[in-house]
Amino acid sequence: MDDLDKIKKEKERWEQEMQKKSRDRKDKFVTTSSEPVAPLYTPDDMEGTDYLKDIGFPGEYPYTRGVHYNMYRGRLWTMRQFAGFGTPRDTNKRFHYLLKHGETGLSTAFDLPTLMGYDSDHPRSHGEVGVCGVAVDTLKDMEIIFDGIPLDKVSTSMTINSPASILLAFYIVVGEKQGVPSKQLRGTIQNDILKEYIAQKEYIFPPEPSMRIITDTMAFCKDEVPLWNTISISGYHIREAGSTAAQELAFTLADGFTYVEYGIKAGMNVDEFAPRLSFFFNSHLDFFEEIAKFRAARRIWARHMKEKYGAKDPRSWLLRFHTQTAGCSLTAQQPENNIVRTAYEALAGVLGGTQSLHTNSMDETLALPSEKAVKIALRTQQIIANEIGVANTIDPLAGSYFVESLTNKMEQQAEDYFRRIESLGGVIPAIEKGFFQKEIADAAFRYQEEIDKKERIIVGVNEYVEEDEKIDIPILKIDPEVEKEQVQNLKKVKETRDNEKVKSCLQKLRNAAREGDNLMPRFIDCARQYASLGEMIQVLREEFGEYREVSIF
Amino acid sequence: MQDRKIRVLIAKPGLDGHDRGAKVIAASLRDAGMEVIYAGLRQTPEMIVEAALQEDVDVIGLSILSGAHMTIFPRVLELMREKGLDDVLLTGGGIISDEDIQKLEAMGTGKLFGPGTNTNEIVAYIKDWYKKNRLSKENEEAHS
Fold it and tell me: Which residues from A are below 8 Å from B38, CB to CB?
C-alpha cells in the first residue's frame, strides 16, 4: 500500500509538471464510445484488482485471459467469412472458392425474405430475393448450397433468427442425405431473437412464443445435435445500430442471462444447455476499448454463471465468441482505406481472444463483397495469424494499467446496466418499454453529431476528403433474373412433392404449436416433405401472432 | 403560413430492419425545426404514400440499405403520381450506387444521399427545396 500511495503522490506531481510543460492538441480525448481517456495510466488505476481472483490464468476461472489453456499456440481461431448471395448455386460456388483459399468454417448469409419467413414468391419478397444473402425456400435449396461439402468435415454457422430452427431442420436433413448423423453436425445458428427486438428488427412473432421456439431448440439439440451451438448471443447488431461498447457488452450478456433463465424455467438443468451457448461480438475501431470489452465479457459471464445460476460444469462458465469487424466503421469514401480499418479491428479481436473471426471486405458499404475484396479480407487474418507474432503468447496486453483499468470499468458499466434492466422488470419488459432502443438511438445520434461537428475525425469523410472522388473498385451486382429463377424453382418443387403429405405434416406442426410439444421434430418432418419455410412460418404466424414495435427515435 | 413547419415523413420500406440511419436523420430533422413523422419499419410503397397523403407532408424520406431501391423508389413515385402528390419531394438514402442514383434522379426523385453524408447537408437541402418549391409558390398565389 505504501508503494501505491507513493505512486499516487508522484503521479500528482507529474501531472502538475505535465500541465506546466506541455499543452494538449485538443480539449478532450475520448474512446469510440465517447468515454474520456486519461493521459496516463499507472498502478493506482487498477487499485483493488486481485490478480488471482480477477485476472487469473487462461483456461481457468474467471477466464479473463482466455478460454483455453494455450489459446492460439494450440489452434488458431477459425477464419469464417460470412457469405451468401443470389441463388443457392451461386452461394455453393462461393463456399467452394473460400474453402479452396484456406477458410476453415462456413458462414451463411440468407436474404431478407428468408430471414423474415417469406418464400421467394411472396409479394413482400419482390425486389429482395437473393440480394442481401442467399434465398432458401425449401430443403432443395439447402441441398444445392451444401452440394459437395461434407457436413462431417466442416462447421457451418447460419445467420438466421426467427426461422432459425427451421434452417437447422433443413441442415439436419441435408446431413441425413449425405449419411452424416445429426450427432456429428457442428455449427451454429444465430437464433438470438432478443437482439432482434433490440436492434436488428428481424422479428416475426411476439417475445414469449419466440422464446418457446428457442427453448424447444435447446432441449432438442442437447440430445440429438449435441455439438451444435444453439444460440449465438449477439452484440454485433446492437453495436451496428449505434450502441457504445459498454452497451453492446451489457445488453448482450443480459440477453444471455435471459436465455439461461428461460432454459431453467423450461425444466432443463443449466449445465445441460449452457455449454452450447456461444457469443458474437463486434470489433470496432477503438483498439483498447474493444480488447477490454472482450476480456470483461469472459469474466462477467463466468462469474454470473457460477455464482448466480449455480452452473457446476466449467464448460457452462466459458464465454466462447465469434467476432466480426465493424461494418458501420467502414466508409464509402476511399474504400481501400477500409482494408486498414478492418485489419486493426481484427487485431483487437485476436488480442481479445476470439474463437472465430470474420473480416469485412473493403467494398461492403457499396455492395456485397466481390471475390477480390473477400480474398484480401481473408488474407488479412492470415497475416495476423502468421506474420506479426501476436499468436505466440496468450493475452499479451494483460497487466497493462490502461487495459486492466478499462476492463474493470467495462465490468462496472455492465453491472450498472444489469441493475437498470432488472428494475424495469427484465429484458423483455425493457424491450417493450423501448429502453434499449432509446439508449442505442441516443448513442448513435451523439456519434453522428461528433462527426458532423468534426469533433471526431473520420479519414476521407470529414477530413482528408478527396473532392470529386471516383470510386473505382469492382462491384458485385445481383441479377434480377435470380428472383425469377428462384420463383420458378420453388414452383417446380411444389409440383413434384407429395402435397398430401405436406398438408398433413403442416397440420401436425400446428397441433404441436398449440399443445406445447417440442416443435423441432415437426420442423424436421416438414423439411423432409419439402414443405417450404414460408409455409411453416405461416402456420406459426397464425398460431402465435406477429409482433409490432413502438417506433422511437 | 410563415409559421408552418416543414413536414417530413421518414420511413423504412422493404424487409430490412437496419433503422440506425433513419432514426439519426429523423432526430436531426426534428432538431432542425421540422415536424417529423416516423413511420418506422416494413412500410410498403402503398403504406408510405397513404401516410404521406394523410399527414399532408412536404417531404418523404426513405432509407433503403437492402439493395431493393430500384424496385421501391420507382413504385413510390408511381403511386405519388397516381394520388396527385406531384408537389411532394421524394428523397432518401442508403447503399445506392452512383449509377443507380443517376437513374432514380432521372425518374423524378429528389437528391439521394450515400453513406457518410453530413446530416446538415440533408437539412440544408430540404430547407432549400422547401423555399424554392413551396414558399415562392405561396407568394405567387398570394399575389395573383
Answer: 551, 553
* DSSP at A309: S
B86-113 average pLDDT score: 94
A:B CB pairs within 8 Å = 98
Give contacts of A112 with chain B, Cβ < 8 Å: 14-16, 66
Q: Hey, which residues does B91 pair with through a beta bridge?
A: B61
Give the residue from A358, A434, A410 showing the smallest Cα distance to A199.
Answer: A434
With residues binned 3-state (H G I as helix, E B as strand, rest as coil), the percentages for chain B, rounded to 5, are: 50, 20, 30
Residues of A in Cβ contact (< 8 Å) with B115: 331-332, 365
Question: What is the rounded distance in angstroms from the CA atom of residue B109 to the CA atom of residue B90?
Answer: 5
Count of other CB atoms within 10 angstroms of residue A411: 23
Contact between A132 and B28 using a beta-carbon 8 Å cutoff? no
What are the Cα distances from residue A536, in Å, to A238, A513, A525?
28, 11, 11
Number of CB atoms found within 10 A of residue A186's CB: 17
The 10s digit of each residue's pLDDT in A80-130 is 888 888 899 999 999 999 899 888 789 999 999 999 999 999 999 998 999
For B71, which of A126, A331, A553 is closest by C-beta distance? A126
pLDDT of amino acid A551: 78
A287 neighbors A347 (Cβ within 8 angstroms): yes
CA atoms within 13 A on the CB side of A219: 18
Q: Closest to B14 (Cβ–Cβ): which among A128, A240, A458? A: A128
Supply the DSSP symbol for B30: H
| Rounded distance between C-alpha atoms, residue A330 and residue A322, angstroms | 19
pLDDT along chain A (553 residues), means of 10: 88 97 95 97 95 98 98 95 88 92 88 97 93 95 97 94 98 98 97 97 97 97 97 97 98 98 97 96 98 98 98 98 97 95 98 97 87 94 98 98 98 98 98 96 96 96 90 75 96 98 98 98 98 98 94 78
Is A11 in contact with A43 (CB distance < 8 Å)?
no
A427-449 per-position pLDDT tens digit: 999 999 999 999 999 999 999 99
Tell me if A131 and B40 make a contact (CB, 8 A cut-off): no
Scored b (16 or more CB within 10 A) or e, B34-48 reads bebbbbbbbbbbeeb
Q: How far is B54 from chain A (nearest CA, A)?
A: 18
- Render pLDDT for A496-518 as a digit per residue (tens, 0 to 9): 999 999 999 999 999 999 999 99
Cα dihedral sign, A57-A275-A238-A114: positive
DSSP A51: I
Q: What is the pLDDT of residue A104?
A: 78
Closest by Cβ to A116, choosing from B15, B24, B44: B15
Quote the CA–CA distance of A473 and A459 in Å, as a whole number. Answer: 18
- CB-neighbour burial class of residue A267 (10 A; exposed 0-12, middle 13-18, buried 19+): exposed
User: What is the β-pairing status of strands B89-94 and A321-325?
Assistant: unpaired
Q: Which helix (H) or strand (E) holds B89?
A: strand B89-94
Q: Is-contact A107 A124, C-beta < 8 A?
A: no
Judge if ipTM > 0.95. no
pLDDT band of B2, cuts 50, 70, 90: low
